[in-house]
Amino acid sequence: MDVEITVVGGGLAGCECALSLARRGVRVRLYEQRPGGCAPAHRTDGLAELVCSNSLKSTREDSAAGMLKRELDAMGSELLPIARRCAVPAGGSLAIDRGQFSQMVSEAVQASPLIELVREEVTSIPTGPCVLCAGPLCSPSLSEAISELVGGEYLAFFDAAAPVVDAQSINRSVAFVQSRYDDSGVGDYLNCPMSKEEYEAFWHELVGAKRVVARDFEQRDLFSACQPVEEVARKGVDTLRFGALKPVGLVDPRTGRRPWAVVQLRSENAACTAYNLVGFQTNLTWGEQARVFSMIPGLEEADFLRYGVMHRNTFVDAPRVLDKTFAIPGTHVRLAGQITGTEGYVEAIASGLLAALNTYADLIGAPSMDLPNTSALGALVAYATDPLTSPYQPMHVNFGLVPPLEGKRLRKRERYRAYSERGKKDLLAYLTQRSDIFGDVVQERGDNR
Fold it and tell me: CATH 2.40.30: does it fit domain 163-307?
């Protein structure tokens, strides 16, 4: 194919987009600004670096996150199989060794004869067809160029990352291994139990601790799924205990009883040498993190390998400036990844894949992808591009986006299962009609992974 597509950004969306285009015989020039330029949240110059949690969320097909993974399998995602090869224990979730994952994605990109990796910053809109996957932390110059191109207001929100501690510094006489409701004795999380007195003392210090940004954030500035733990705690003394620190389904082996509250730690890598504090995205100063988080039983002597950080993320007002393929109408530019406001790791992979499929459709003169809105990805795209979505805020896939079921009202778990089965049926029916994009083979990979 005598055309070259420019893809800007070597994150999840950009790498998925580049690999998926190359798979279809399209030449790609992939730009990544690191190591010459580095966004505040990045730590390495590796491609597809995960900068927040290492979890790609649930694998259950009756969850929206699991449903999305199944859809990506069916559509031939390039990155999701790599992620599974880098998995670390995480119960019913797909958590990965982020270093191994980045290395394997980098190797896949460099091994493709159709992808040219260019290590330099893009400061203006490229000429010719391009996909901008610059992420929510793209450079100020490119952000300005995109803002001028869309002709609308650029929006922003604050995102936060959780701290990581050295496994050897965790007090294993206090922290115990267990997954919620797991009585097999083999769990995927370390649990730091708290008594009522310990929890309330911790809560008091947490809400009064010094923050990097010395002002109260307005609710509109914070994406609810990534609110700093101290902001959640300010809503009430029991908010965390019924949220990220809920003790249900856990039993402290020292007492044989359920703790008052529990801080869960999840492995960062396959070797289990580092653990992140689940739900502890934070804006506290590093000194305050060491002081306050060391109050957690089992972490009294914790060695923090990485402190939590907070950074400003930007995204376009997608319902006003993008069409249903995430292209900017009247231009040669398409967006993908978190800059579109589709929030989450797997969602970024999905948008990169969808950008590749729609770009390929443009090249061969085929209709654009029009996924059924009963699918997880189709519902997310419909939300993000519906002019009636106002005000527009970052969004993960969730069952609140899909059309309601007809007929009698079901219990939550039955309803979610029904959503999943309906979406699976509708998506596979659609994919069988798109041999122009996927070839002549019906995409059953979602059932055979």
Answer: yes
